[in-house]
Amino acid sequence: MTIRDIRLFGDPVLTTRSDEITEFDEALRVLVDDMLETMDDAGGVGLAANQIGLTRRIFVFDTSHVEDGLRGHIINPVWEHIGEETQTGQEGCLSIPDISVDTERFETVKVSGQDVDGNPIAMVASGLMSRCIQHETDHLDGVLFLRRLSPERRKEAMAAIRTSDWFNS
């Protein structure tokens, strides 16, 4: 397993839509392992492939630190909200270090996709896992969570990014 470099805000790969995965092979297994190790090393809850420079539709997640949390991956994810209830909570991103902003997301979603062997998978998720699914799928669509913020919150987040050490180095 290898810890990969995480791409940071401003890298064009983060605003590029990822391509569906059609080959389920040993290289994909290695990618899943590398992504999980990279996410763990960075202290994240989720990591999308374009965050390590690959425009492939896969993300990994780990919500095991919360009760009944899960750890795994979803390939070619598609989600839909269940009901109209939303949640607002702190959301951050490994590609935008040290920025955490209240972000509104749907409370409950149903996601479907595939596992590393190409088998269909699906789940209904609420709370943190629901937020993770929406956030990471946004990444795969080339959308950063900053676009989900109100104009005022986005302006504040952008000001913090512009003055951050990682952005100016």
From TrEMBL:
Molecular function in Gene Ontology: metal ion binding; peptide deformylase activity
Residues reported to bind Fe cation: 93, 135, 139
Entry annotation: catalytic residues: 136
An individual GO BP term: translation
Entry keyword tRNA processing: no
Catalytic activity: N-terminal N-formyl-L-methionyl-[peptide] + H2O = N-terminal L-methionyl-[peptide] + formate
The entry's keywords: Hydrolase, Iron, Metal-binding, Protein biosynthesis
UniProt remark on cofactor binding: Binds 1 Fe(2+) ion.
Cofactors named for this entry: Fe(2+)
EC number assigned by the record: 3.5.1.88
NCBIfam families: pept_deformyl, PRK00150.1-3
UniProt function note: Removes the formyl group from the N-terminal Met of newly synthesized proteins. Requires at least a dipeptide for an efficient rate of reaction. N-terminal L-methionine is a prerequisite for activity but the enzyme has broad specificity at other positions.
Sequence similarity: Belongs to the polypeptide deformylase family.
Protein name as catalogued: Peptide deformylase
